[in-house]
């Protein structure tokens, strides 16, 4: 699951719990035994909400791979076979 979000004014009315139950129901209907999602460590409100639902937090590693810019082709006349 990705990018689940309720606007601030929609929170506190049971909509999040209803939405998560609908997600769980869909997962059950598809024969899945669990649903996974993520939230940043700093999103304490979401973490408390997920904990109240009985979800289990799991550690995760994030990786970044730097990619160098492409090397431009050499500038100059084309090089062909040697003649002589």
Contiguous runs where pLDDT drops below 50 for at least 5 residues: none
How much strand? Answer: under 5%
Helicity range: 25-40%
The helix/strand class is mainly alpha
| Cα radius of gyration in angstroms | 25 Å
How many strand units?
0
Explain the overall architecture.
The chain has helices spanning 15-29, 44-53. The mean pLDDT is 88. The longest helix is centred in the N-terminal third of the chain and has 15 residues, at 15-29. Helices cover 30% and strands 0% of the residues. The chain is elongated. 0% of the residues are buried. The protein is built from 2 helices and no strands. With 84 residues, the protein is mainly α.
Fill in the keyword field for this structure.
mainly alpha; 0% strand; 30% helix; 84 residues; single chain; elongated
What is the topology?
Layout: H1 15-29, H2 44-53
Task: Kindly summarize this structure in a few lines.
It contains two helices and no strands.
């Amino acid at each position: 699951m990705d990018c689940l979000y309720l606007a601030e004014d929609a929170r506190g009315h049971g909509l999040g719990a209803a939405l998560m139950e609908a997600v769980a129901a869909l997962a059950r209907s598809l024969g899945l035994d669990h649903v996974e999602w993520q939230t940043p460590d700093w999103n304490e409100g979401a973490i408390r909400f997920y904990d109240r639902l009985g979800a289990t937090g799991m550690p995760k590693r994030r990786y970044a791979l730097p990619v160098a810019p492409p090397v431009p082709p050499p500038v100059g006349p084309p090089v062909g076979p040697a003649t002589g």
